Amino acid sequence: MSKAYVPNREADQVIIFAGPCSVESTEQFDIVAEGLSKMGLSWIRGGAFKPRTSPYSFQGLGIEGVKIMEDAGKKHGLKTITEVVDTTHVVEVLEHVDGIQIGTRNMANFELLKVIGKATEDSHQPVLFKRGMAATIDEWLSAVEYITQYGNPNVMLCERGIRTFENATRFTLDISAVPVIHKQSLLPICVDVPHPAGVRDLVPSLARAAVAVGDLAKAAIAAGADALMIEVHPDPKTAKSDASQQLTLPQFEELLDELRQVASAVGKRIV
């Protein structure tokens, strides 16, 4: 794969990792990739391996899904990133995508982290490292060193919401993690917007999910986030996973216009 990098803390960029929760088909992923490319973005994300809570939920297309991502990325000029959940898949997945993600359930899977650290030691392919849903910031920062100890500088932390006693939202977005990470670490930080939101009708006064999710996204940029993750699907109601929190392409484009204004106000630009 060509060299891909995550922004350092001094960069004037805010990366948007947008794309469907799951890679479901060539057609579905190509529609999203074409749309994101036309919007001027650089990255597309998608889940090929899906570690679901229920064994009866859609588990992803596996390597087939990774190859679909690779083809769409090349076709539309986008860098690709996907989650890896098993040590046996790491090397093969890295051959087809630009970056890999470590999901919340695997934050403390130290054997997987060591394999990823070793596998990216020379290539320096980007690694997006999500916070465990019940992890403290200290635990998160300690775990990431299982990767960085091997010398890959292209590691980005990702706040995706934590479990609290509050049940009004799917998770509680710890927006304070952004300035805390900036104070305690040299690593950049991404905010995964849809997972803490969970559903589109969080804000009763607003009918559209883009605004409900958008408020969190704008807050994340204003707080100093170096990247955002937002789920986008051609037809969310038919999505095989996380249907309730994915935006349509028109909804996302409207949100993106707002995010560009917010980013500009704090001296940054969306890529």
What report would you give on this structure?
With 271 residues, this protein is of the alpha/beta class. The protein has a single domain (13-270), classed as Alpha-Beta Barrel (TIM Barrel). The protein starts with 12 loop residues before the first strand and ends with a strand. It has an eight-stranded parallel barrel with strand order 1-2-3-4-5-6-7-8, surrounded by five helices. The chain contains nine helices and nine strands.
Topology:
Layout: E1 13-19, H1 26-38, E2 43-45, H2 63-76, E3 79-83, H3 90-94, E4 99-102, H4 110-119, E5 127-130, H5 137-148, E6 155-159, H6 177-184, E7 189-192, H7 194-197, H8 209-223, E8 227-231, H9 249-265, E9 269-270
